[in-house]
Amino acid sequence: MVSDTIRLACCQLNVTFGDPIANAGQAVAQLVDLARRDVQLAVFPECYLTGYCVRSLEAAQAIAIATDHVALKEIRTASQETGCLAIVGFAERHPDGSVSNSAALFEPGSPPRFYRKSHLPFLGLDRFVTPGDALDVFETAIGRIGILICYDQRAPEPARVLALKGADVIVLPTNWPVGAETSAEVVAPTRAAENRVFYAACNRTGTEHGFTFIGRSGIYDPVGTALARAEDGEAVLIADLDLAQARSKRTVNIPGEYEMAIFDSRRPELYGRIVE
Fold first, then answer.
1. Does residue 117 have an active-site annotation?
2. Quick one: how far is CA 172 from the chain centroid?
3. What CATH code is carried by the domain that includes residue 31?
4. 273 inside domain
């Protein structure tokens, strides 16, 4: 049975470029600690296992890992042993040599599930990857989870699709460098509020091949209020989410006088231009 309240953590950490084993070891240690604090879902940054800042397809292929890589297996095992779900980003290499910007969802008792970044900026790894072609909501024992990655949040449609599909919480593993402050401070809480979902954006820290990452991870409630926010250093954010708040799409300020139903008031017949 799906629970109503969950405890979620965003692990805003530095990344060792090109060393998935070292990064997985750090994630495993976090999962063990977070399980002691009753965390049920831990989110790690975009490309956390591999690093992100490359300047060629060959460099992207060199850091990318397959979905059966030992680093991913170690995190899956830790998830099984601790009972804590984990979402972790990595550069994924496919048998044909193509690369995806991916996130794995590990849940005890279930096979791994994956999301591939579908909206791509001209930056780092994303210049050389194949975009994903699905926006899925994953049913889990703790609720319905939607996953986006970094630039996926820039357009409003991906988060709206996940919300319309019933997501209780949308998680965003991200690599926001200097220059992406608006994404952290404005866009993330807006996506929560406009869809009445919980929204957890998990950025990284540190510097990689000339890019400095700004941190500023945040966990937001369905009206866009920050439940937890970080600055630019390493940090672990934890918040309790009452999923019943996200499952009600009606805001009642004054009963019978001042109410808003964000999905019932939609006019899809007016929106055709969006998909032209």
1. yes
2. 2
3. 3.60.110.10
4. no
